[in-house]
Write a structure and sequence with these properties.
The chain is mainly alpha-helical. The protein is built from 18 helices and no strands. Helix content is about 75%, strand content about 0%.
Length: about 400
């Protein structure tokens, strides 16, 4: 028990430090646009480059069964250092859009050895209580994702490059902590040989499919909401010029408080079940998507901020619960591969939703476009509801 407690604390801290790389350029996007003469749409493209890199990385990691064949802590450490190195590429004076996209792609590629691998390491330490543990772990991811916005606010009087230096340094420290302090977990079952089709076989399990499809619907909404949070705030300001937001700080608060809901959801899942809490969170975030166009018309900025905070909490609360369900319904010897391939597909979906919003926003100023994000939660709820109906029929 003591070993479990120590391990999960280190995993959470390492995950937090390393995932600060994810939105490193989002926190300084205005500076990048000005410094490298980019188009305003660069935000969506740079975010998608990280996602595409992550997708490519998770696919390679899954096909080669890297996490199940080699020590997860060593994979995490190596990936953290490589991702941090490519993050530094953003500082190159000769950058243009293409080079920035390449650097962000490889930053995302090696993040594939951080996020799903961190979940795999946690799963190797727990047979029971995994939902609560992954709640803390995904909470760390949320805070790490939001951190560049806070760093930007703290360094307003300093050059924007400090944000990139800081996230690179944090990732390196996180990788070292994992390597030194977190050995292989007691419930780890090492894959003995390369299985190129292992990542496909897991989908034959109906319980695994239902959990995965719920996760896919959740991912359609999640990263698009995170990427466009600063734009949501800026749009409200444009509609209500008398309202002035500290956009970096509020972006951090809106995204970062999602970490609290991950932890809360993990605790609630111990009493009410992971699937039920995930369903409720997905339903609430779907409602937020649908009513979001109307919220811009409110004259009260306090209500608007409260709405975004609530949305930011429910949009991520189900993530650790879906990961828990995926891990529980995957064969132990390919659990890491299963988590990785589900991440791969989920993040592929995020590119589609981000680019759709990005492209639509380029030719319309209508705020109804954010209702498109409800498509994913609706499909995810249908997948979960079908599984619940089948389970009820079997019990009858």
């Amino acid at each position: 028990m003591k070993q479990q407690s120590k391990a999960i604390k280190i995993i959470v801290v390492s995950q937090f430090l390393c995932t600060s790389l994810w939105f490193a350029t989002n926190g300084v996007i205005d500076n990048l646009v000005e410094r490298f003469q980019l188009y305003p749409e660069a935000l969506g493209h740079l975010t998608s480059a990280v996602q595409f890199g992550f997708i490519s990385g998770t696919l390679i990691y899954a096909i080669l069964n890297i996490v199940d064949r080699y020590s997860p802590s060593k994979v995490f450490f190596t990936s953290a250092l490589l991702s941090a190195t490519f993050n530094l590429g953003v500082l190159w004076e000769g950058n243009h859009l293409i080079s920035l996209l390449v650097f962000r792609f490889f930053t995302g590629f090696f993040l594939a050895g951080i996020y799903p691998v961190g979940m795999k390491i946690a799963a190797d330490y727990y047979k029971k209580g995994l939902g609560k543990s992954l709640g803390f772990l995904v909470g760390a991811l949320v805070l790490g994702t939001a951190l560049p916005h806070l760093l930007k606010d703290f360094t307003r009087t300093l050059p924007w490059q400090y944000v990139i230096f800081a996230t690179t340094s944090l990732s390196s420290v996180g990788g070292v902590l994992m390597l030194v302090w977190v050995p292989n977990g007691p419930f780890r079952k090492q894959g003995q040989k390369l299985n190129l089709f292992g990542f496909l076989n897991v989908f034959k399990n109906s319980k695994f499919r239902a959990s995965a499809f719920g996760y896919f619907g959740h991912m359609w909404e999640l990263y698009a909401f995170w990427a466009f949070t600063p734009i949501l705030l800026k749009t409200y300001h444009n509609l209500h010029p008398n309202v002035v937001f500290n956009i970096p700080l509020w972006s951090f608060v809106i995204i970062g408080l999602g970490g609290v809901s991950c932890i809360l959801g993990g605790y609630l899942s111990q009493t009410f079940g992971a699937k039920r809490i995930a369903f409720i969170a997905l339903f609430l975030s779907c409602i937020c998507c649908l009513i979001s166009p109307f919220m811009f018309q409110l004259e009260s900025e306090n209500i608007f901020i409260a709405f975004l905070i609530f949305w930011g909490m429910v949009v991520i609360a189900d993530s650790p619960l879906f990961s828990t369900l995926v891990a529980q319904n995957a064969p132990p010897e390919i659990k890491g591969t299963a988590l990785t391939i589900v991440n791969c597909i989920g993040f592929t979906i995020t590119i589609v939703s981000i680019q759709i919003l990005n492209n639509i926003k380029s030719f319309t100023s209508s705020n109804t476009i954010y209702a498109i994000l409800a498509i994913g939660p609706i499909l995810g709820l249908i997948a979960l509801q079908r599984k619940r109906k089948k389970a009820s029929q079997v019990q009858a």
